[in-house]
Amino acid sequence: MSNPSQGSPRGPAPVCPYLQRTPQGYVCSITQRSVNPLGWYCVFDYMNCPIYIGHLSRMAGVKGPERKYGEDVVIAAEDLSVVFKVGSMFSKKDLYAVDHINITVNRSETLAVVGESGSGKTTLGKTLVGLYKPTTGRIYFHGRDVSTMTDEEYRVYRLKSQYIHQDPYSSLNPYKTVYDILAIPLRANKLVHSKAEEEKVIFETLESVGLNPKAYINKYPFELSGGERQRVSIARALLVKPEFVVADEPVTMLDASLRLEVLDLLLSVQKEMNLSVLFITHDLGMAYYMAGERGRAAVMYLGSIMEFGPAKEMLESPLHPYTQALLSAIPEPDPVKSRSKKVMKLRSLDPPNPLRAPPGCKFSDRCPFAMDRCFKERPPLKKVGNTWVACWLY
Amino acid sequence: MSSVVLSVKDLNVTYRTATFDVEAVKNVSFELHRHEILGIVGESGSGKTTVALALMRLLPNNAVVSGKATLYSRDGNTIDDVLSIPESEIRRIRYRWGKISIVFQGAMNSLNPLLTVKDHFVDTAQAHGIDKEEALKMAAELLRSVRLEPARVLRSYPHQLSGGMKQRVMIALALMLNPDIIILDEPTTALDTLTQRQILELIKDLRKERDVGIILITHDLSVVADVADKLLVLYKGYVMEIGEIFTVYSRPYSPYTLMLINSFPAIGKKIIRLKPAGVTAKTNNRGCPFIDRCPFASIECSDADMKLVEVEPGHYSSCIKASVLQQQLAKVTTSE
To answer: pLDDT digit string (tens) for B183-216?
Structure first.
């Protein structure tokens, strides 16, 4: 790790005038070896730092590969593919879990990604936070290409983009207490200097997720209910003050009566911390609830985005036949509505093997509206009204 | 309404452990008619699977069961007390699987990965004294009845089938001995929206086709809303509410049911938010179990005896403040 006085390899790091205390009250110390994407030494909340923001606006004028996308875009993926090699040694095949996707997530926005299992939504989420390496394409974090980041920058990117796992029963270490589970990321990233500070941050975070710190810090995961576990999981992701969080089906493993509480918690911390959230779900109702009025939604099928647009508009009147089929299939928690609903008849009930996806439109073999063209050519995303849709019908 | 196929009276199940007893199911009573789907809804720990296991007589040895359950088989035989017939008798009359069968939670993962679907059917059949040829004939017919292609599926190993297909194979296996009742424990939990819909449609069709009564156990209210005729809401072992699905949904007489209905985000649905009243129970073993989460709770609730009261024809609730709830609810919905 480089000496702070030498700065990043890109040049000397400017001395931060907010050395003593950031606006958020965390000790900002130049001796901490963490750096924001601009090469500033900074521990927490540089996004709220007036100096940093001033710098950003100057940078926005800079053209070239250094900075793409506007200030609002927290994370962007360009032509992103993730390919898994499957099959035996001599017949390896490429499975496109994520197939040339372009996506952007804006600051404090929720982007809901909806799809069946096997649609690649989890792979997309994991790739965006750096848990998988993209096979092709680039990921931009605050306009900086992740693949060309310096080690320090990459560390900040990994720290500022966090992941909430689907299953709270297997994503918490059963041998550690809640306190230890939460202390590990703080210590590993050297975000705290003293035991007292560590405690303060952990207590605050636990409170922010609605758990009474005193009652929970010494508990082991097996002593917690599903909802409590998921709260700890959320606390762990929020502890390091991320800007971008991938929430991978955070409530599917929870009891119905607890789901809404956890969703509301996510919504409230998102507002509080100005988080950008990529919300992965297979439930259109949930996507609608989370992305709501302002957010956007994307529907994925076999690794591709079929439809993408403002959540409310898109989910209330979807354009793509696949989205329409999903919408017609969701069970409504109301017997009158649910029984009067007409379910769209698909030509095949089960999705095809992703290794043998149809050559044209991936949905063509199930789509009731498929035409000759659909079997031959893959439709590009086309803008219809406010939404983007990949379908030859439009 | 067709005839009753199962009637359960005051079912109690207590698990004895070395240190204390856990009352998992308390005074559960219900009736299941032929061709009817009864949805049992509750969160984990509410005792819904225990009810199923008690009826299947598959509870572990430390469980103490009381109450009475009577099964009226379609062959005219009546099993008077399902809960106490001896194990030898169970085998002789082929009670399990023959009269009542179950598809367990996560059953699609319980197929043997080393056996083809055909082997599963043959194995099951031979264990019950049906020869191989007969078994294959039955298998083909059963698979067709769960909308699967026998020719392809019989040859397949479980990993070659999708989750929905595996679940349908499990349902077919459960139907093999022509039971009167089939219990489905969380049949759609791990499935996708589209697959879930297929399974639910299948369940709806099966009850007439196979002449069965179905008990559908789930924590997902939207699943029962779609298919069930009757709804039984369990909470911590108590029946909170039971009634016809449409009346329970439109007029819930238990705050817990109301909370469940309002915990599902759906497109274009308005969610009623109510805060708990903050009343805590006096002692652990008395009163309403929902008291600490209930928005309408008051101090009387900690003494409630949780008896089911008929609030309207065929609709029972154990909430002592059911009428208050209805008034408040009317207020909330009009003020919004």
So the answer is: 999 888 777 777 888 888 889 888 888 889 999 9
Higher-pLDDT residue of B74 and B282 is B74
User: What part of A 256-275 touches B (C-beta under 8 Å)?
Assistant: 256-260, 263
| Residues A167-195 pLDDT 10s | 888 889 999 999 999 999 888 887 777 88
Which domain range does residue B192 map to?
4-106+180-234
Q: Are residues B223 and B265 in the same domain?
A: no
Identify whether residues B189 and B317 lie together within a single domain: no
Hey, are the CB atoms on B44 and A288 less than 8 Å from each other?
no
Residues B223 and B289 in one domain: no
- Claim to verify: residue B329 and residue B186 sit in the same structural domain: no
Tokens 């017609």 identify what position?
A328
Residue-wise pLDDT for B119-167, tens only, equals 999 998 888 888 899 999 999 999 998 888 888 899 999 988 888 888 8
Measured CA angle at A209 (ends A206, A210), to 5 deg: 90
**Nearest to B319, CA basis, from B237, B230, B241:** B241
Cα distances (Å, whole numbers) of residue B200 to A252, B43, B278: 19, 20, 38
- Chain A residue with minimal CA distance to B160? A353
Domain range A111-130+146-305, its CATH number among 3.40.50.300, 3.90.1230.10, 3.90.280.10, 3.30.2350.10: 3.40.50.300
For A:272-291, CB contacts with B below 8 A are 282-286, 288-290
Chain B residues touching A327 at Cβ < 8 A? 267
All residues of chain A having their beta carbon less than 8 Å from the beta carbon of residue B249 are: 334-336
How crowded is residue A151: how many other Cβ atoms within 10 Å of its Cβ?
Answer: 11
Residue-wise pLDDT tens digits, A126-136: 999 999 999 98
Q: Is ipTM over 0.90? A: no
Spatial separation of the C-alpha atoms in residues A381 and A389, rounded to whole Å: 5
Q: Quick one: pLDDT at residue A151? A: 75
B217 to chain A, closest Cα gap in Å: 13
